[in-house]
Design a protein that fits this description.
alpha/beta, five-stranded parallel beta sheet, about 350 residues, elongated, Rossmann fold, disordered N terminus
């Protein structure tokens, strides 16, 4: 008889970008919350992808943005079945179990994240089979409407993982995550990472993720952000410790010559925290370089706004933040407004901003 259960090695399709996975998670969780049958009550999702591309962060963001409680456990840290089952104790001649401290106790909705599932020992994976299928073990069960999500690393790559057999894999819905550059830069723009380094990575697209992982890049840029542009010795020391040798000189040259071309008009219009990006420009570039970048943003934004009435609230607010920047003077504000219909919501919103209005009064 042919085995129709897909093996772990079949989870190698083209993959989905983070935004697509978020839509799938919404769909899967809505299905789980219905609870109309055994399948919908417990159908865990396993997100596959290379280390450092943001699988865990994606689940954390999903839970945070929807105000859903999240419990994260790492099965690879379990040394024995007691770490999973809890501790037995005797009471009135009967054996009872005290669940592990990480087991949720409040009713859902909630998410139990089994992070790096296939890095666990085979004994632990076998012990998790009942949890994946029914939402519980012999010693404890998840409260109502708690949903299991797992992350895993592909077996076909050189990672220290335990292959999932068909009995375990067949209990989950599987999603393959791929690295998406635009999603990563959108996320990075909100993280106070170094704007010079972001420009460098944007200019050399094959650096990420082929040479270093997105997680390594974020760690590097976070450290880079605290080093002044003038301190080349410390910058070189940091780069030498975290980048391949042939990339160190490229980075040092970029810091002294180039500008953060990742901050495009299209990206600026959709940023969640534009003030963070503008502040980074002031902190990390010379005043002339920062002003040049802001003027390029204004010039690039103007032709993008063909129908100001249809402009999103986010884009309108970001434009106001740019016009309110101390380096943008009143003449530049008036020049921008000259291209906008006086009756448009954007024109009115700009004039209603006290920080912008005082520049042109």
């Amino acid at each position: 008889m042919t085995n129709l259960v897909p093996s772990q090695r079949s989870f190698s399709g083209p993959g989905l970008i983070p935004e697509e996975i978020l839509h799938l998670l919404d769909l899967s969780m809505a299905f789980h919350m219905q609870g109309t049958n055994a399948i919908s009550r417990q159908l865990p999702v396993c997100i596959w992808g290379s280390p450092g591309i943001g699988k865990t962060e994606l689940v954390q963001s999903f839970a945070r943005e929807r105000s859903i409680p999240l419990t994260v456990v790492h099965p690879a840290q379990f040394e024995e079945m007691g770490d999973l089952l809890g501790m037995p104790f005797s009471q009135e001649g009967k054996t009872h179990w005290a669940p592990p401290s990480w087991v949720p106790t409040e009713p859902g909705p909630g998410i139990l994240l089994l992070d790096d599932l296939n890095r666990a020992d085979a004994r632990i994976l076998n012990g998790l089979m009942s949890l994946l299928q029914t939402g519980g073990l012999a010693s404890w069960s998840l409260p109502p409407f708690w949903w299991i999500v797992a992350t895993a690393n592909p077996e076909e790559l050189a990672y220290s993982v335990t292959p999932l057999d068909d009995a375990i894999a067949g209990r989950m819905q599987h999603i393959r995550m791929k690295f998406d550059r635009n999603s990563w830069f959108t996320w990075a723009s909100t993280q106070r990472l170094d704007i010079r380094g972001l420009g460098f990575i944007h200019h050399f697209p094959h650096l990420l993720p082929e040479t270093i992982s997105p997680r390594q890049a974020a760690q590097f840029l976070a450290l880079m952000a605290i080093i002044p542009s003038s301190d080349h010795d410390r910058m070189r020391l940091l780069a030498t410790s975290m980048l391949p040798p042939d990339w160190v000189e490229r980075l040092m040259t970029w810091i002294t010559l180039d500008q953060p071309d990742w901050l495009t008009p299209e990206r600026f219009l959709t940023m969640e925290q534009p003030m963070t990006a503008l502040q980074s420009l002031r902190e990390k570039l010379t005043p002339e370089q920062a002003l040049s970048t802001k003027l390029a943003l204004l010039d690039g934004i103007t032709p993008l706004i063909k129908e100001p009435a249809n402009l999103s609230a986010r884009s309108s607010q970001n434009i106001i933040e740019l016009l309110a920047d101390p380096q943008i003077n009143g003449n530049l504000v008036l020049a921008f407004l000259h291209h906008q219909p006086a009756s448009s919501p954007l024109h009115e919103a700009v004039l209603n901003s006290s920080l912008v209005r005082q520049k042109i009064l």
